[in-house]
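Annotated sample (chain length 184).
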Amino acid sequence: MSELTRERLVELLTYDPMSGIFRNRKPLHGRRRAGSVAGTIKQDGYVRIVIDSHSYPAHSLAWLYVHGTFPPLDLDHINRNPGDNRIVNLRPASQSQNQANRGYNRNNSTGYRGVTFHKALGKFQASIRVGYKPIHLGTFETAEDAGRAAEDARAKFFGPFAAQYNDTDRKALLVPGAKIRENA
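Output written by the structure step:
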């Protein structure tokens, strides 16, 4: 199987870099009309598009459409929305950088990334992961202090790829029903 080229992509689809949406240029196997939105939103929020019996992530196709080649690294969605494939929202990133810009885990109970409550000590501990190596940042009296330490460390190690949250973001990003543990 030969790799998809920009020419083949442009032959089949149009791409609007302002909206991040792909549309079919012509009818596709009698199922999709010309001008219809191409792709399927998967359970993880990413859009996938099938071309010549091969499934591609829409963000990689956006990069190919605009730059003429597939991205050299992973692509990071700057705003952390996997369905937002506007070219201004995409940037090449290593896997480590991409992970630095992710949201909260489902089981987050403190409201801060990289912060857990240590029952035996009655304190909050902060840690981050750089590459595959965990880095312990210390224990703190409050979740806010531990969260600040984790954010500062992410900024130091990951620069512009470090996800930053304000209090409104933090509360909005928590899984519905998750309980934020108040200071001990």
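Annotation: DSSP finds five helices and ten strands in the chain.
Annotation: The longest strand covers residues 123-130.
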